[in-house]
Design brief:
Largest interface: A-B, 23 and 25 residues
Largest sheet of chain B: 6 strands, mixed
Largest sheet of chain A: 7 strands, mixed
Distance between the termini of chain B: 35 Å
Oligomer: heterodimer
Strand content of chain B: 35-45%
Helix content of chain A: under 10%
Shape of chain A: globular
Radius of gyration of chain A: 14 Å
Structural class of chain A: mainly beta
Structural class of chain B: mainly beta
Chain lengths: ~120, ~110
Amino acid sequence: QVQLVQSGAQVKKPGASVRVYCKASGYTFTNFYMHWVRQAPGQGFEWMGIVTPINNGTSYAQKFEDRVTVRADTSTNTVYMELNSLRSEDTAIYYCARDREPTSVSCPDFWGQGTLVTVSS
Amino acid sequence: QSPLTQPASVSGSPGQSITISCTGTSTDVGGFNYVSWYQHHPGKAPQLLIYDVIKRPSGVSHRFSGSKSGNTASLSISGLQPDDEAMYYCTSYTSRTTVVFGGGTSVTVL
């Protein structure tokens, strides 16, 4: 069965960077795009970006494109999301989510358990 | 990319039908048949209810249905049940090869 296991919670200071990992299993890793989505406390979901593991092609939301990097490692079936220049408003739960459709972008379907990132001085 | 516009809240009595709207632009909802809908209960992963505007994943109740007209997509829930009380989010693929979420709608079963 599809499983996405994310790395643990982190606390960061403003201005720092954070990297969140997502290890995939139960399917052919290179066949599916991986999304990154976040949810700040009391807020809705916000789409951040996507990667296709087969060639590390990416697309980012305009809001994040100068601060975020998403990469896939096919040797370990792991995707990571790195967010730079953190500010307090980046405090959120960050999710990886596999796309529903193989080899194309449709919509997130299988979700990781989420990783809480807290930005505080 | 602005979030898609959803009503903040919708309510209905058990057994009734409700509809949640999701309004975008011609560069997202209106331009592609890639609208999806999610149900989210706090503390759980979002559940995909509808994809490609009208399609239901296997295992999702037929009480949930999707539609689209112009730049507005809609999720209808028939035979409202207490467990339908949750947050509902729409998403759409966009012309910038990105995805955008709606702001979310809280459904209350009276």
